[in-house]
Amino acid sequence: MNQPAALAGYAAQPVAARMQNHGSHMVKVAMQSGQDLFARPGSMVAYEGFVQYEANPPAVRQMASQWLTGEHNPLMLCRGDGLLYLADYGADVVCVNLAEESLSVNGTNLLAFDAHLQWGVERVKGLAKFAGQGLFNVGVRGTGWVALTSRGAPIVVDCGRGEDETYVDPDALVAWSSGLKMKGKRSMKAGALIGRGSGEAYQIGFSGQGFVVVQPSEDSSDRVRVRG
């Protein structure tokens, strides 16, 4: 059956990179033998070719006790040859190509990343007083692709463009360059425009060379907390 003309604009496009967006809510990954991928369980929406999945592989089990995402398996290992399409309940997806760089990602915003990248669960220093028990992120390092999710179209702020610090609500943070300097700031004004609560607002200040990815959402329930 021929494809209806009305659907032509949604057809799969030729592969131009290892990882690229298909629209704003989906990522397409070009899978090849020997180029494995870690992805969020349940994120696969379609694939072409031959792709296999392994839930809770050994590299993930070593860290699963710290990763409290509310899911039994925080990551699955994908391998094979073909095209893999991933999404996360209609969230916006951002593809980042690291070039010997490191990125700190909120665990609930991590959709997929190249398996050859170095990674690990890390406590975010300096945020415990803002988040009660403290927060952890996933640090990803090396050269390769990472796919992030955002609740709405995110903004990417280049912190190195000026001397002023960039302040972000901690509940809206998606990811940031690991080399940035961080500090906390507290506002006691009841009419504060940043943050939520009964009179207090908290922000994280970033400075240095790098960028911060911020989502248009301040739902603290999205945040993953570590055991105290």
Task: Tell me about this structure.
This is AIM24 family protein. It comes from Streptomyces cacaoi. InterPro entries: AIM24, AIM24_sf, Trp_RNA-bd_attenuator-like_dom. The structure is a single chain. A hairpin with a 5-residue loop joins strand 1 (19-21) and strand 2. 31% of the residues are buried. The protein has one domain (16-222): Mitochondrial biogenesis AIM24 (Double-stranded beta-helix). 4% of the residues lie in helices and 46% in strands. The longest helix is centred in the first third of the chain and has 4 residues, at 58-61. With 228 residues, the protein is mainly beta. It starts with 18 loop residues before the first strand and ends in a 14-residue tail after the last strand. The chain is globular.
Percent helix among the residues?
under 10%
Described by its quaternary structure, the protein is single chain
Tally of strands: 15
CATH class: Alpha Beta
CATH superfamily name? Mitochondrial biogenesis AIM24
Approximate shape: globular
Order of helices and strands: EEEEHEEEEHEEEEEEE
What are the segments in which pLDDT stays under 50 over at least 5 consecutive residues?
68-73, 221-228
Determine the N-to-C terminus distance: 58 Å
Strand content: over 45%
Helix-strand makeup class? mainly beta
Pfam family, one: AIM24
InterPro entries: AIM24, AIM24_sf, Trp_RNA-bd_attenuator-like_dom
Protein name: AIM24 family protein
Organism: Streptomyces cacaoi
